[in-house]
Structure prediction request, 342 residues.
Amino acid sequence: MLEILTADEAGFCFGVERAINITKNAVQDTDQKVYTLGPLIHNPQVVKNLKKSGIDFVNDIDQIDQGVLIVRTHGVEPSILKKATDKGIKLIDATCPYVKNAHIYANKLINNDYQTFIFGDKNHPEVKGIFGHTDSKGIVIESIEDLKKIDIKSKVGLVAQTTQSYDQYFRIIKYLIPEVKELKVFNTICNTTGKRQKSARQLAKKVDAMLVIGGYNSANTKRLAEICSKTNTPTFHIETVEQINWDKIKDFNKIGITAGASTPDWIIKEVLEIMAEEKKDVNVEKEEDLKVDEVKEEKQKEEQPVKTVQEKDVEVDFEDSEETTKEDKDEEVKKDLKEVED
Prediction:
């Protein structure tokens, strides 16, 4: 029977939900055109729905000269904020509060003369924003290998992209400790991120396969897929229900489902609903197959002659012999014990 289990932590996080509400309210409160600087969140389906509501996104501040500009959840560099203000564009800040903390701490480290490392994905907009708040003096690292190529000073500070893995962050910290005289670390990883990753890892260990739902451009969703894969459980990253590969998951009996922080509930619900329908179909097919197998088995029994063997003038029936069954069982027990001892 197909069993579907969902992670305790999945779907919209506080920061994403807050940003969407801010954006929707902005449209209602103004007659001006509303834009977001880059996609509000890393989920194509949500961005598409926002566009239907009259909210477009631009990739560069130079693309607009007026209107309302919403700073997305990932935040931006201070220079972009200044440029928008100088152009007379109204700014509404929907930066996630956890990301803002990373901005504040990174800036504080730089101002106190720490060699400041930013642990994160170099090309991610959040990391670019954090880097901007260090007056472009911070150093972005993605792994310990990056640190090995750098002349590390005696006084080092460290912040992380909010969706990074705690395990990877701890490895970076562990590497730095013997290399420096002073190390100041700020835990800028979002609490929800940690809980979500832990929940996904625990679920992946209990199931035959995992479905991770979220945008292919979503860093936290990709991280969830990586974490699940590391448990050696087959893991499939999908954006929508249409991308479920039934041929690859049809033989699994227990499937776990989790979702990234920018994945809306309605997409998760669609996946759960179609999995529930598939569960019914699987049950029906299995029941029908069972009935067919039972009929075949009964027919074979009727046609098959009783097999016997002559040993010491005693006729022994393979199916009914207690002596033969006992010997077979003894051999099986001995084999099992040997395997345990080995």
In short: The longest strand covers residues 155-160.
